[in-house]
Write a structure and sequence with these properties.
This protein has helices at 13-22, 26-42, 49-61, 69-78. With 79 residues, the protein is an all-alpha fold. Helix 2 runs parallel beside helix 4 (69-78). The two termini are 16 Å apart.
Amino acid sequence: MLSLLLLVNASELEDHLLEADEKGNKLRVDALLLGAIRNLKNNRAKPDSMAYLNLMYLAKSRPELFTSKRIVEVQYFYN
């Protein structure tokens, strides 16, 4: 499951996610979200503020991006 993740610069995360969503590329959306979540998990001591603010903004404005099975499973995996 975790092999399908993409790491991008936190400042470009929102643009990449919205572009993939507009194109209907759900696998890429999931991979970008998984990469961002994994990055935050790996840097718990000093999380990237741009990354978590982007994720919080997207969760509030586009909650449907976070409802796929892959994203829900990884949230339980990391808790």
